[in-house]
Amino acid sequence: DVKVTQSSRYLVKRTGEKVFLECVQDMDHENMFWYRQDPGLGLRLIYFSYDVKMKEKGDIPEGYSVSREKKERFSLILESASTNQTSMYLCASTLLTGSLETQYFGPGTRLLVL
Amino acid sequence: KQEVTQIPAALSVPEGENLVLNCSFTDSAIYNLQWFRQDPGKGLTSLLLIQSSQREQTSGRLNASLDKSSGRSTLYIAASQPGDSATYLCAVRSGGSYIPTFGRGTSLIVHP
To answer: What is the mean pLDDT of residues A59-66?
Structure first.
């Protein structure tokens, strides 16, 4: 059974803290994604990675960075957390090839920045 | 740029009804279209994926259709149950892009 796991389900941080959100997939997928989801705004892509050490900015990369040192792990970093980064963060992965690829999502991390 | 719209934004139906959720997209040059379900506070679960060469896909009580020429997909849920209550999202992957474009979802409540 395919699996995308995220390091925390709930997280509370203070303004200015450095925050790490980790995502691990066990399906040998090339593509990995980080989204945030906010009421009324839907899913918005933060960053995307199509291979180890490769990354591309999504629609809202400001205030975030990512790291992909190993194929199975994609980390989202909030360099200095702010209250407007309070959100639900979702990680996803897909295979690189073909139109049959399904996007698999992790359970999400609900982050509250105080 | 691909835009994906889902109508209605919310729907409340009595148990047992057959219902249709709609997804429309602006660029018909798509690679595939995927329907997801999201329960409150959870991640997204894939329901059905339709390749651009297909017209429909079925899984149990769910049937998704695709009409590229009109830029539309529908998700048909037969004999709805309270357990079907969730938000349903569609995502379109355009040709030449790794990144799907998501609609904002339809929030469905099926009441007993």
So the answer is: 96
